[in-house]
Design brief:
The chain is built from ten helices and no strands. By secondary structure, the protein is mostly helical.
Length: about 180
């Protein structure tokens, strides 16, 4: 981890809700695109950037409320996965009820959302929102937590092996570590 330059600054930006230039609309798109399991760096980042150029930078979608009301067929011209857009629109719809300020809405939700009962949370209850998406949104909302993905598993396993312990095999055990 010492070899990863800029990691601390990236983490601090995330905790300040400043990913994607502070655009919560882009953070929601990022989380929902990431949820289908494609490579983050070769697929998700480029599509979030394309969405930004075609919808956010030109003012077509300025906030979460506008994302919630956006035409899904127009959105699918950037990212074809309808499920991702349905989730994004539902998340945006809920968050936009918390505050007119998108950043405040995400941070308020993240602060109040709890891992222990994530399936009862208004966002956790949404069809298609799994634990990884839930945790990723909480992280972008300023919560210092982890999400149970393969990169986390890899880092946890590296630490366990160096400590002379058995590595985690997968899902259930990793969940217990969280």
């Amino acid at each position: 981890m010492q070899k990863v330059s800029g990691l601390k600054e990236h983490c601090e930006r995330c905790l300040r809700t400043e990913r994607w230039g502070g655009s919560v609309v882009l953070m929601v798109a990022d989380a929902t695109f990431t949820s289908i399991g494609l490579n983050y760096f070769t697929a998700v980042v480029q599509k979030v950037e394309e969405f930004n150029k075609k919808f956010v930078e030109n003012g077509k979608i300025k906030n979460l409320k506008e994302l919630a009301e956006a035409d899904i067929d127009e959105l699918r011209k950037v990212w074809r996965n309808k499920r991702s857009w349905i989730i994004a629109k539902n998340i945006a719809s809920y968050l936009s009820t918390l505050s007119q300020d998108d950043k405040l809405a995400l941070r308020t939700w993240a602060r109040n959302a709890k891992l222990e009962n994530w399936r009862e949370d208004p966002i956790g209850k949404l069809k298609g929102v799994g634990l990884i998406t839930f945790q990723y949104l909480r992280m972008m909302g300023g919560i210092d937590t982890v999400m149970p993905d393969k990169m986390v598993k890899s880092v946890v396993n590296e630490i366990l092996v160096k400590a002379g312990l058995k590595p985690v095999k997968m899902k259930g055990k990793l969940k217990k570590l969280l």
